[in-house]
């Protein structure tokens, strides 16, 4: 008869190290590794997407700020100066239209153009703003300058704001009324202010207000009061007495 110890059958058999992992253990390890890898990729994708959205938002804000400052400087220094186009025809001092893709939105002449290199030109510059509905980048607002005020060819336009889904413009006259265009006016007449409402894709509308030239300075409407230089009178017959000269005082 074979003798066995008292604990025989109650202790698990020892497994040799050379046997390795079982198939179930390998599958569990692979599942855990796949879950951790997926979580890492998801977090990385979220960080990259958030960074791209933040960069796009900052670029949008920067373009809006640049456009506002540029238009503010241009319109604030607008001058009432009639110019000539490249074909020689006369152009009014300020020409403002509604939204038309084939014509400039605003045309005017501004002063204060710095001349650091002492070039043979005046300090006046012709400015035009365009709203392009077609072309690369989609609907956009552009700025175009002309080196000479009379008879020169305009330069290449510069893109200011892209992805513009809607744009409205109005011109304020001297009575305070907002007009949809500024065309049937005098050759030297200019609006007092310009209002621009810009709507971009998936963004709220932004209203920009600009003062044109001396529009911030109201015109003189009250008569100037003349201060009398002679003796002060009180009524038609009374006159303020003047003290007699004192004897012995020179020049009295």
Shape: rod-shaped
Instruction: Please identify the oligomeric state.
Output: single chain
CATH architecture of the domain at 74-211: Roll
Low-confidence stretches: 216-229, 232-242
Give the integer mean of the pLDDT values: 79
Protein name: Type II secretion system protein J
Region (Disordered): 221-252
Family: Belongs to the GSP J family.
Subcellular location: Cell inner membrane
Can you put this structure into words, describing what you see?
It comes from Sphingobium subterraneum. This is Type II secretion system protein J. InterPro entries: N_methyl_site, Pilin-like, T2SS_protein-GspJ, T2SS_protein_J. The protein is of the alpha+beta class and 252 residues long. It has a domain at 74-211: GSPII I/J protein-like (Pili subunits). Helix content is 21%, strand content 25%. It is built from one helix and 14 strands; from the N terminus they run H-E-E-E-E-E-E-E-E-E-E-E-E-E-E. Strands 1, 4, 5, 6, 7 and 8 form a six-stranded antiparallel sheet that branches. Strands 10-9-11-12 form a four-stranded antiparallel sheet, covered by helices on one side. Strands 2-3 form a two-stranded antiparallel ribbon. It is rod-shaped and about 130 Å long. The N and C termini lie far apart (160 Å). The model is unreliable at 216-229 and 232-242 (pLDDT under 50).
């Amino acid at each position: 008869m074979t003798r066995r110890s008292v604990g025989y059958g109650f202790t698990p058999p020892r497994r040799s190290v050379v046997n390795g992992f079982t198939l179930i253990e390998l599958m569990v390890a692979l599942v855990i590794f796949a879950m951790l890898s997926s979580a890492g990729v998801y977090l990385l994708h979220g960080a990259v997407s958030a960074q791209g959205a933040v960069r796009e938002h900052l670029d949008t804000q920067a373009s809006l700020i640049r456009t506002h400052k540029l238009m503010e400087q241009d319109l604030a220094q607008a001058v009432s100066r009639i110019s000539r186009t490249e074909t020689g025809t006369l152009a009014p001092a300020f020409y403002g239209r509604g939204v038309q893709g084939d014509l400039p939105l605003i045309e005017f002449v501004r002063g204060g153009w710095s001349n650091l290199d002492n070039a043979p030109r005046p300090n006046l510059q012709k400015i035009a703003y365009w709203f392009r509905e077609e072309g690369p980048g989609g609907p956009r607002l552009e700025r175009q300058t002309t080196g000479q005020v009379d008879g020169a060819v305009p330069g290449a336009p510069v893109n200011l704001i892209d992805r513009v889904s809607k744009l409205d413009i109005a011109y304020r006259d001297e009575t305070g009324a907002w007009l949809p265009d500024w065309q049937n006016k005098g050759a030297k007449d200019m609006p007092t202010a310009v209002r621009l409402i810009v709507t971009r894709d998936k963004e709220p509308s932004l209203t920009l207000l600009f003062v044109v030239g001396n529009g911030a300075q109201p015109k003189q409407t009250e008569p100037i009061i003349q201060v009398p230089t002679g003796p002060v009178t009180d009524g038609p017959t009374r006159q303020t007495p003047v003290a007699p000269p004192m004897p012995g005082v020179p020049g009295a």
